[in-house]
Structure formats: structure tokens, C-alpha cells
Amino acid sequence: xAQARRAARLLAALNPDAIIASDLGRAAATAAELAALTxxxxxxxxxxxxxxxxxxxxLTHDEIMARFGDQYTAWKRGEPVxxxxxxxxxxxxxxxxxxxxxxxxxxxxxxxxxxxSHGGTIRTTIGRLIGLDPHTWESLGGLxxxxxxxxxxxxxxxxxxxxxxxxxPEPVLGDDD
Length: 177
Known about the structure:
By secondary structure, the chain is α/β, with parallel strands linked by helices. It has 5 helices and 5 strands.
């Protein structure tokens, strides 16, 4: 909760226009910290839930390796794998990215949307929004708890401006803006 409070204090300085969150406990509680500071309501939606990992749910890494080692190895190579019979990463993006885009479309010009979700869902959604091949989504890396990524709309679509950040974003100065 201390991490969520710290993140909320920083993100509140961005004056968000809307907050959306997974309806699962930790994400909902994290979003509530920001809502308390901004006075905004949180829109909770199951589209932002973490990847359902079927029989892998609740297992440690060692248990997954012992029971599903070949499946795990294929997944780490970037193959489309239904981990434990659960969702494919592309299916997670299929449910999360359209919801994020629909909520972003409701913002005023230059508005800010805060999305509070889970590491796998965030990675697949970012990958989809910036047009990466699903095979490469893993290259985005994970997110530390209560850290964030910043996306912005550029001339050619969505751009990843910051990833796994824990400080407020600063303008990027360069020739390609």
C-alpha cells in the first residue's frame, strides 16, 4: 500500500482525466489511492485482468517447471502457448487494448488516462498499441509493482515514451518529435 500511495502522489501531479482499472483486488486498491487524491471515479473492468494461466495459477516457478517444463520453455521462446490451458497473450491484448482505446477516445484533447492493471496485461496491451509483433512483446520486460509506462499518440500512432518508470515523465527532446 505504501508503494501505491507513493505512485498515486506522483501520478496525481499529471492531473489525469480518467482512471480505469482491473476489477481484481490489488489493482483496484492501487487505483483507489489515486482516486482518493484526484477525486476521480475509477472505472473497473474485467478486460484489464491479468492473463489467466489455467493450471499454472498459484504455482511457483519450480512447480511450473516440474509439471509444465516443455510448455514453459516454448512460452519463453515466444511461441503462442496456452499456459496451463489458459489464455494466449494475444487474447489478453484482444480484450484489454480495445477497452483502453475506447476509454482514451473519451478523453479531451491532450487528456491523460491512467490504466491500473497487471504486468502481463500491461505488456501485451502496450505491444498491441504500438504495433509490435506478438512474438516480441516479451522484450518489453516486466513492470515493478506500482511503476508505470507512458504512451503517447504520435504522428504515426501510439509511441512508448517511458517503461517501468517510477518518476514523473519529462519531455523528450529530439529530432523525431
